[in-house]
Design goal:
275 residues; SH3 type barrels; 2 domains; three-stranded antiparallel sheet; 35% strand
Length: 275
């Protein structure tokens, strides 16, 4: 009888802790605010140069990894009032991009989102390694109405947390992650593990999830050949609010933000689904 009571008490405590964790996560995540951008632009061609001043003779600025340009897949907000130049921030730096090589985005068009499906922008320049930008999104489980974005850039792989504002997905919080795009073999269903390490001042989160939080895509869904085989990706729609809060707690508390936007332009047929 004593053992039974101890087991029951342990179960009740576990349920209580889970309920409390859910409550805290939901309260914090539901309180986050996201603002619609004034205007968004993307490169007219494959890329557009970033400059230190609104002048075609001004020096180029490396603010996108080691690159002094933005790729066509990246949407940037015009934060200024110059009729000829986009004033924006990339990689924490204020840069200027001529509007002659940019296209203003239609931020009112509806979002044709396909959850978890990746989209790629790829720029191959001769024998150099390709420059890539990849994004895929999913609305997290719960009622906070938040979205996760799995973002791959020249700087690495990141998760971003955001919300749909009108017809724009506005992402504001960013963390660097390491995940394995495969079926997890050593993680129990319903569980996840999260570790982190800091190197050169940058924190990376190592995330593993159970088989219940993995999504498969057949070659035909990805636009690939049959021999490509099945693609396995973490299912962003299965991420719970406590999981997401665990991932983003530090950057939320420190209010560390880095804006990223997706619109109907980001989910068009122009973008391949495989690298």
């Amino acid at each position: 009888m004593k053992k039974i009571l101890m087991v029951l008490c342990s179960m009740l405590l576990s349920v209580s802790l889970n309920v409390n964790a859910q409550s805290v996560a939901n309260k914090v995540l539901s309180s986050l605010t996201f603002e619609a951008p004034k205007a968004l632009y993307h490169a007219k061609g494959q890329k557009a140069n970033m400059r230190a001043q609104p002048n075609t003779k001004a020096r180029l600025v490396e603010a996108n990894g080691e690159f002094s340009f933005i790729g066509r897949g990246l949407l940037v907000e015009d934060m200024g009032s110059n009729p000829n130049w986009v004033t924006t921030k990339v990689g924490g730096k204020t840069v200027y991009i001529s509007k002659s090589v940019m296209v203003k985005d239609d931020i009112a068009a509806s979002l044709p989102i396909v959850a978890n499906l990746p989209y790629w922008w790829i720029e191959q320049d001769g024998d150099m390694d390709p420059v890539v930008l990849s994004w895929r999104v999913g609305k997290i489980a719960g009622n906070s109405q938040l979205y996760l974005c799995d973002l791959q850039t020249p700087d690495g792989r990141f998760y971003m947390l955001g919300k749909q504002v009108g017809s724009v997905l506005v992402f504001k919080y960013k963390i660097k992650v390491y995940v394995e795009d495969a079926i997890p073999e050593d993680m129990p269903v319903g569980k996840f593990s999260l570790e982190s390490e800091v190197e050169n001042g940058e924190k990376t989160y190592y995330l593993k999830v159970g088989k219940d939080k993995v999504k498969s895509f057949q070659p035909a869904q990805m636009g690939g050949e049959p021999e490509m085989g099945v693609t396995w990706l973490y299912d962003l729609t299965k991420f719970t609010e406590p999981m997401v809060y665990s991932l983003f707690k530090e950057v939320i508390e420190k209010n560390q933000t880095d804006m990223f936007y997706l619109t109907s332009f980001s989910f068009g047929k122009e973008w391949p689904h495989i690298f």
